[in-house]
Amino acid sequence: MTSTDPLAPRLPSPLREVRDDRFGRRGLRLLLKRDDLIHPELIGNKWRKLAPNIEAARGRALVTFGGAYSNHLRATAAAGRLLGLPTTGVVRGQELAGRPLNPSLARCAADGMRLHFIDRSTYRHKHEPKTLAAILRAAGAEDAYAVPEGGSNAAAVRGCLALGRELGGQADVVAVACGTGGTLAGLAAGLPPDSRALGIPVLKGGFLAADVQALQEDAFGARSGNWSVDDRFHFGGYARTTPALDAFAQDFEQRHSLPVERLYVAKMLYGLVSLAEEGAFARGTTVTAVVTGRPFP
Could you state, in order of their start, the residue ranges of all structural domains in the chain? Predict the structure, then answer.
């Protein structure tokens, strides 16, 4: 991408070591991979996954999918505004008549995204060809380039390879918060053999490992890299938080002058602190946390 491209990124993203006694007293180093600084509007893994899909779209309108608080919908809407591309967001859940949009969807609409709401049952079957065709027809997006929920497909996974390669030789364990699994799939494949990737799912259900493997098989033909997931830190599921998680995030912000996004990044950091306290990492391990987003205003 050229410097005049409105999607031009800052790469590689900064890598910063922080002093945290919860890691230090166990002989661990903690690094923060600041992917939230890649682009002012397509933040972190959203840029890494969207950019290759936008290239594949070749100027066509974009349609994509997400929940009412989807960061992916916001990033797609922002990309559409920056590039002058029409965008449609298919939103899980029915619109409540007379109720204002939440701040996330309001930002999408302000960026020009057309919002099309569908019931949760239909949304669960959106991967089925007949259901997908009916959704796109109803949304007026039959001719648009479809980007999957969370932006995770083979193109996106290959786009996230660079994240692992940027960390080559600088981390033993690399942790990332996961929604649909595309970032973990590419990150793990890009890391050298002596490093491993750890996914912290923000949804409950225990299905992510199978999804990540399927994404890797689609992108590379087989499972790739050394990776695992830990399903214990979802705090009730997607877009759910608790007072304990909020207190943890506020404390981390104060310790390290880092704005902590609550739906993904806070859960990943909480998981890493918990694992360190459990003795899950051997002394001398360098642990890297990928900061995939920041709080939206």
Answer: 15-40+157-290, 61-143
CA distance 118 to 121: 8
- In a 13 Å sphere around the CA of 110, the CA atoms on its Cβ side amount to 9
Average of per-residue pLDDT values in the chain? 94
**What value does the mean pLDDT take over residues 113-120?**
95
**15-40+157-290 topology per CATH:** Rossmann fold (3.40.50)
Q: Mind giving me the DSSP string for 153-186?
A: SHHHHHHTHHHHHHTTTT-SEEEEEESSSHHHHH
pTM of the entire predicted model = 0.92
Report the CATH number of the 61-143 domain: 3.40.50.1100
Q: Which residues contact 48 (CB under 8 A, 6 or more apart)?
A: 35, 38, 156, 159, 160, 162, 163, 183, 186
Residue 39 has pLDDT above 70, yes or no: yes
Q: Is 90 left (phi over 0), alpha (psi -120 to 50) or beta?
A: beta
Name the token pair of 244. 């304990």
Pairing relation of β-strands 87-92 and 173-178? Answer: unpaired
Q: Are 35 and 207 in contact (CB under 8 A)?
A: no
Give me the residues paired with residue 177 across strands.
200
Q: How far apart are CA 7 and CA 212, in angstroms?
A: 27
Q: What is the DSSP track for 199-213?
A: EEESSSSS-HHHHHH
Residue 295 in contact with residue 259, Cβ under 8 Å? Answer: yes
Q: Decide if 15-40+157-290 and 61-143 have a common fold.
A: yes
Across the range 68-80, mean pLDDT stands at 93
Residue 278 neighbours by CB under 8 Å, 6+ apart = none
**Which among 125, 123, 108 has a CA at the least distance from the CA of 65?**
123
37: which DSSP letter?
A: G
The CA distances from residue 2 to 75, 160, 199, in Å, are 20, 20, 32
